[in-house]
Specification:
With about 600 residues, the chain is of the alpha+beta class. The protein is built from 24 helices and 15 strands. Bound molecules: thymidine-5'-triphosphate (TTP).
């Protein structure tokens, strides 16, 4: 349920930038012959010409819509060019589009706090840049205002033959209040950014510029493609008065329907008729207040400083005759999806040092010969283990668990029409591990053994991500949950957790030893470690800490062999009062971390 966030007292300038028919633009850049030609991108499959997932603006003029399949689009627009999404593992491979999106983010993020909201959407908090502009070069003293800014649609300004002149006046009004002057600066900054995006990437985008995220997001699609819309505070009541409830983010589903049914509300503006108390009576304190505020265009949501995606997901639909009807076919496709997911989280780890903690499986399903309304296939989550085969194994168990719940012990035929796996709860790799990782990678590459470096990298990454390296012949069951996985603090369990540094130490010795180093951590413990690390990213390695490392048992000779910077790093973690004990029986790191040595 939505919750109203506290607002900042100071005015903000927020932009929502959305690429125009994004996948089509990416394909048109790749193949310039498609420019100016009706084009759509279709998802790979042979059923009725594949499903359209992006439709170019030239094709939209002919009535081509995303809901159509390729065959239908051809009927509506015989000249349409249908480009297949690149395919890998029998499903769409979106890497081309993802990296094109990153090119744009790199440009947009130069002017303010930037939140990558999806593959082709970004929020920007331009408040500070707008303030500086207002101080140093306000629009009224500029010799010329960029043409693109003059083409802005300023809500409430009306539209007539002199639109650009009106916009020029609006942007440079010396008597405007501070809030609107900031917004005018925001409009100029966004126009300049959009020009840069076009020059540097060949992509056009549209934008909304307002005082908060909600209004900016509402405005960006109002005039598309390649245009921008400004929402002055004075225009908000009119904007919301006619806005259908279902168009508002978070009101598209059940809550929006409930508003229509309970209160007879059709537009967001209709909410103004109800007091905050009344809305709270109906929908609870938080949602009631949120509704009361959005009716007035008030939203305190902050732009998060995040250039990387919040989660990774990959899915595939199986429409019509492609429906999956056996566990064997489900397993086949889950394996493909999990391989891709594994590649993506692994490269996120390698490139960005980020760890995903939760694996989720979603599916759409039906039961055969069922007359009653279809129950939804429940989404299932569990702790995420790195490595494609582990993810495949866990995803299949999540599927089986979801299916048995979905079928409710009935012995009926079933079909799966879509499958998706996701990796979420992504956290930054804890501080203090990167230099060790670097050291061992360098050490191995300098040894000129590609086998060593590859294997070590894998081992190191696993160690960093607290992988539970289980014996394959003795897999532990996972407990799928419908919601996110709840963890128990390690301190509560006083768990004797072994991991991380082990991977580095053992990794450079020999591959046999590496494989013998099966770090055995319960999944919930691993989750607990990760969340501990999030709140305390540089934990001390002493016996009392939540990691549960027994420093007494670490062989100092191993630490002594490391370069000074690494020694310092490790010793910095060790509580000074816990001096290393060299004489203890079985006290080598290999002994401590490697069951095989016992
Ligand atoms: P959108 O931003 O929703 O749409 P768009 O960029 O194609 O067009 P518009 O100019 O109207 O914003 O989606 C961005 C890309 O995401 C889109 O080009 C293709 C992909 N996509 C899918 O693959 N499946 C979907 O259901 C949707 C909505 C989008």
């Amino acid at each position: 349920m939505p919750v109203a966030r506290p607002e900042r007292q100071e005015p903000r300038v927020i932009a929502h930038v959305d690429m125009d028919c994004f996948y089509v633009q990416v394909e048109q850049r790749k193949n310039p012959d498609l420019r100016g030609v009706p084009t759509a991108v279709v998802q790979y499959n042979s059923w009725k010409g594949g499903g359209l997932i992006a439709v170019g603006y030239e094709a939209r003029k002919f009535g081509v819509k995303r809901s159509m399949r390729g065959d239908e689009a051809k009927r509506v627009c015989p000249d349409i060019q249908l480009v297949q999404v690149p395919v890998a593992r029998g499903k769409a491979d979106l890497n081309l589009y993802r990296s094109a999106g990153s090119e744009v983010v790199a440009i947009l993020s130069t002017k303010g706090k930037c939140e990558r909201a999806s593959i082709d959407e970004v929020y920007l908090d331009l408040t500070e840049t707008a303030k500086s502009m207002l101080l140093e070069a306000p629009p009224e003293v500029l010799d010329s205002i960029p043409e693109e800014a003059l083409k802005s649609h300023v809500l409430g300004l009306g539209s007539d033959a002199n639109k650009e002149e009106d916009v020029r006046k609006w942007l440079s009004r010396p008597d405007a209040d501070y809030e609107e002057k900031l917004l005018a600066c925001g409009a100029i900054i966004v126009a300049e950014l959009r020009i840069r995006v076009l020059q540097e990437t060949e992509f056009t985008c549209s934008a909304g510029i307002a005082h908060n995220k909600m209004l900016a997001k509402l405005a960006s699609p109002m005039y598309k493609p390649a245009q921008q819309t400004v929402v002055p505070a004075s225009s908000v009541p009119d904007l919301l008065a006619s806005l259908p409830v279902k168009k508002m983010k978070q009101l598209g589903g059940k809550l929006g329907s409930a508003l229509q049914d309970d209160l007879g509300i059709n537009t967001v503006g209709d909410l103004l008729k109800f007091s905050e108390q009344k809305l709270q009576d109906y929908y609870g304190i938080n949602t009631g207040t949120w509704l009361w505020k959005i009716a007035r265009g008030i939203s305190g949501d902050e732009v998060e400083d995040r250039l990387l995606p919040k989660s990774h997901g990959c899915g595939k639909t199986f429409p019509g005759p492609m429906t999956l009807k056996t566990t064997t076919t489900v397993k086949h496709w889950l394996n493909q999806l999990c391989e891709e997911l594994s590649d993506r989280i692994q490269s996120d780890l390698d490139q960005n040092k980020r760890i995903a903690q939760t694996l989720t499986l979603h599916a759409r399903a039906f039961k055969e010969n069922e007359l009653e309304p279809q129950k939804k296939f429940p989404s299932k989550s569990c702790a995420l283990r790195y490595g494609a085969s582990k993810i495949q194994e866990d995803a299949m168990r999540l599927f089986e668990s979801g299916l048995s719940e979905f079928l409710n012990s009935k012995n009926v035929g079933w079909g799966i029409t879509s499958l998706a796996v996701g990796a979420s709860k992504i956290i930054d790799m804890p501080n203090g591990t990167t230099s060790i990782l670097k050291y061992f990678n360098e050490k191995c590459s300098s040894s000129n053994s590609s086998d060593c470096s590859d294997a070590l990298l894998e081992e190191s990454n696993h160690a960093v991500t607290f992988i539970s390296k289980r014996d394959d012949e003795n897999p532990r069951s996972i407990a799928p949950t419908e919601s996110t996985f709840h963890t128990k603090g390690l301190s509560e369990k006083n768990a004797n957790v072994k991991g991380t540094i082990l991977g580095y130490f053992s990794g450079c010795s020999s591959s046999d030893q590496r494989s013998a180093n099966k770090i055995d951590i319960e999944e919930h413990e691993r989750m607990a470690i990760a969340s501990e690390l999030k709140s305390n990213p540089n934990p001390n390695l002493n016996t009392n800490n939540n990691w549960g490392f027994n420093i007494e048992e670490i062989d100092p000779s191993v630490v002594d062999e490391l370069p000074l910077e690494i020694q310092r790093e490790i010793r910095g973690w060790i509580h000074p009062s816990k001096r290393i004990n060299t004489g203890k029986k079985g006290s080598t790191i290999a002994h401590y971390f490697s069951p095989a040595r016992n």
